[in-house]
Amino acid sequence: MRVALKISYDGRAFYGHQRQPDARTVEGECLAALKAAKILSDPGKAFFRSASRTDRGVSAVGNVIAFNTSLRPEAVVGAFNDKSRGVWAWAFAAVPDSFHPRHAEERWYRYHLLRRLPLDALRAAASAFEGEHDLRWFTSDPPAGPHAISRVEVNPAGEGEVVDVRAQSFRRGMIRRIVAALVGHAAGEIRLAEIEAALQGERHDFGMAPAEPLVLMDVRYAVRFVPLLKPKVLDEWREIGEGLELRSRFLRDLFEAAHA
């Protein structure tokens, strides 16, 4: 049976997502927990795959891993959480044997701006990114052609704003470079015409926003996930984070993703 899990984690605790031989990573922790719980023994034979390789410092409430196992999907969640350290599974789905989590219908990222900026200016810059554009200057891994961004929304949240960005896929650093352009325009440092020119392929470097306020909210597919918000998961989330208001925003984000 092939099982997919939605997982959450505080990205500050890991050196990124992808496995590294000498560093603690999200993928490495997932595999260690799966092996310790006897859910799988060989990642290759189990066709273990991850949906999104979040950068160092980037957190998630709705990333997805998938693998083959003989355990029932409901049993996998509890067994995984019993062995994992800093990664929590909170929803599951039984998926087809061919399911690959990277082939998603939509990815949803949220960036938390922890101070108030002019909302109209943020939204004006955000709207420029919607649709297909040349995004070569907004990633260190430029796409071969135009790249589509479905939606970029900015809304007030607490003492700041949140920027929600949705697309089928993203390239490395893309969200953080988009946010840097939005913030620069709202602060009066970048003209909207410069952003529009960059989206047409003109060379511009607007910098990169810090990783820590970025959260992968959800990765969506045609399959239905069953949420299991166990007390351990909620207790662990209440304990994490001090500096960037992570405790309150992660809990809010977790519930929003779970009920989206």
H/E series: EHEEHEEHEEEEHHEEHH
Major sheet description = 9 strands, mixed
Question: What class would the helix/strand composition place it in?
Answer: alpha+beta
CATH class of the largest domain: Alpha Beta
* First-to-last CA distance: 26 Å
Mean pLDDT: 89
The geometry reads as elongated
**Radius of gyration based on Cα positions:** 19 Å
Q: Mind telling me the CATH superfamily name of the largest domain? A: Pseudouridine synthase I, catalytic domain, N-terminal subdomain
CATH domain topology of the largest domain: Alpha-Beta Plaits
Amount of beta strand: 25-35%
- Please report the number of helical segments: 7
Q: How many beta-strand elements? A: 11
Would you spell out the secondary-structure blueprint of this structure?
Layout: E1 2-9, H1 26-36, E2 49-50, E3 59-68, H2 73-83, E4 87-95, E5 106-113, H3 119-129, E6 131-133, E7 147-149, E8 151-157, E9 160-167, H4 174-186, H5 192-198, E10 214-220, E11 226-227, H6 231-239, H7 246-258
Parallel strand pairs: 3-10
Antiparallel strand pairs: 1-3, 1-4, 2-3, 4-11, 5-9, 5-10, 6-7, 8-9
